Amino acid sequence: MNIADLRKSYEKAELSESASHADPLQQFDQWLTEAISSEVPEPNAMTVATVGSDLRPSTRVVLIKGYDERGIVWYTNYQSQKGRELAGNPYAALQFHWVELERVVRIEGLVEKVSEEESDEYFRSRPLDSRIGAWASPQSEVIPNRAVLVANAAKYGAQFLLQPPRPPHWGGYRLKPDNWQFWQGRKSRLHDRLRYTLQADGGWLRERLAP
Fold first, then answer.
1. Is 189 known to be catalytic?
2. 189, 195, 206, 208: which is the annotated catalytic residue?
3. The overall pTM is greater than 0.85
């Protein structure tokens, strides 16, 4: 099999200016709702791209945990690679890829930490194992083997029992979008691609880009 010969014709839907929302958040809400209702695998999974002090980009997949007019929220370890990179360069890019719907959403903007209260509230809603895991994993650090994680989980489980507090190094980020792109696969590679750019007055400029 030649990987270069793998091809697919995209023919499920279209994205027109007249049928899309003027506000990108509404368009995102519609597409995410449709992805969830279509039962695509992990519709809440998104790629987060950051850039380090060495100017090398890095990506990883996280789960969106909230969105509104303030931005897109996810939670993680602030001492992880992405946390360190965001501390040095607070701009990031997000991408959702709903393969079954032949759709991609790209979002760019400034990232800030959510409030302590928001992080505390979400942390309390997590399953107990996940709350213990936030203490047990020194995310992005080199460890000798998996036994370290298991031992840490046992240690913090015994220490905190059923009420582990939120670690000070763990919490939420919110990306405040200034650029959205919505991509809908179309036949003959003539895909639909709409870009929304934030304007000085707070409105959005919607433009069609060549695919």
1. yes
2. 189
3. yes
